[in-house]
């Protein structure tokens, strides 16, 4: 693959993603391990943590259960210039009618066409939210953007460079047990957050959901990795259920911005947890 532009700029996410960690990197830096060779991220999403830590590791394994998301990353990795060409067409054609026409396109076969469609919808839908109905079809309405930047060529090319030495797989988070085996491995889990109340839910963005029993299975995976000496870090909501699950590990609070609520007045700071299998140096 030939990438037209190669600079030394820090790569960053090319997708908007609910729960993305881009704005939390400054708080997260102190929680990363001092040394590791292999990085694993089983809930990839927007990939903000990967794009930050990839400069410090030799290899990375990125995974997600969302097949379309995995396809996007693979296309950026393998043929970013062809993807950019398709996105430029979307940029030229964008309007309300075109948005809903593309949203209804569920039978695209070409991996590149599917990837360009997802990026286009991500950049133009309401609040950058990825949500599927029970049939697995994207169903978010169009956002109110005057001039959305659908084709960010520089960011895509930088992402392509960062992704060159990675394995990108589609599968469940438990697959990391087959890949991370030593203290040279660093695993970061960013699952759908456990609801902090009966009326809140961070789990309903795709057809699969993420229930309490999934959180328990994730905790078992965390424990199994930690027992091997793997360095493990996890983000989740600050609630009694999560604190009880990870009692005995290193639990820290951070302040994050709530950015998903449709009412801007209800967006604000909220406490979240960062849990590590290793001690974190005090400030």
UniProtKB/TrEMBL annotation:
Gene3D superfamilies, sorted: Adenine-specific Methyltransferase, Domain 2, Vaccinia Virus protein VP39
E.C. no: 2.1.1.72
Enzymatic reactions: a 2'-deoxyadenosine in DNA + S-adenosyl-L-methionine = an N(6)-methyl-2'-deoxyadenosine in DNA + S-adenosyl-L-homocysteine + H(+)
Taxonomic superkingdom: Bacteria
Residues passing through the membrane, by range: none
Record SUPFAM superfamilies: S-adenosyl-L-methionine-dependent methyltransferases
GO molecular function: S-adenosyl-L-methionine binding; sequence-specific DNA binding; site-specific DNA-methyltransferase (adenine-specific) activity
Binding site residues for S-adenosyl-L-methionine: 17, 21, 64, 190
Sorted UniProt keywords: Methyltransferase, S-adenosyl-L-methionine, Transferase
GO BP: DNA restriction-modification system; methylation; mismatch repair
Record-stated family: Belongs to the N(4)/N(6)-methyltransferase family.
Name assigned to this protein: Site-specific DNA-methyltransferase (adenine-specific)
């Amino acid at each position: 693959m030939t990438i037209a532009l190669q600079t030394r700029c820090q790569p960053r996410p090319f997708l908007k993603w609910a729960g993305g960690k881009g704005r939390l990197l400054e708080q997260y830096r102190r929680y990363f391990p001092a040394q590791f060779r292999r990085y694993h991220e089983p809930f990839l999403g927007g990939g903000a943590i990967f794009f930050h830590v990839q400069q410090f590791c030799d290899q990375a394994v990125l995974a997600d259960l969302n097949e379309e998301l995995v396809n996007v990353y693979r296309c950026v990795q393998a043929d970013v210039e062809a993807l950019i060409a398709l996105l430029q067409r979307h940029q030229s054609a964008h309007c309300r009618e075109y948005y809903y026409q593309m949203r209804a396109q569920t039978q695209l076969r070409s991996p590149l066409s599917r990837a360009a469609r997802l990026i286009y919808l991500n950049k133009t839908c309401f609040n950058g939210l990825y949500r599927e109905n029970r049939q697995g079809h994207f169903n978010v309405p169009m956002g109110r953007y005057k001039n959305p930047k659908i084709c960010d060529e520089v960011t895509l090319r930088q992402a392509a460079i960062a992704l060159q030495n990675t394995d990108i797989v589609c599968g469940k988070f438990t697959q990391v047990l087959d890949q991370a085996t030593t203290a040279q491995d660093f695993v970061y889990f960013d699952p759908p957050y456990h609801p902090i109340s009966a009326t809140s839910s961070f789990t309903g963005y795709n057809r699969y959901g993420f229930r309490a029993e999934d959180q328990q299975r994730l905790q078992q995976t965390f424990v199994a990795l930690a027992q091997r000496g793997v360095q493990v870090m996890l983000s989740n909501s600050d609630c009694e259920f999560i604190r009880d699950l990870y009692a005995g590990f290193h639990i820290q609070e951070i302040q994050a911005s709530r950015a998903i609520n449709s009412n801007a007045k209800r967006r604000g700071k909220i406490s979240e947890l960062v849990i590590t299998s290793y001690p974190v140096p005090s400030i």
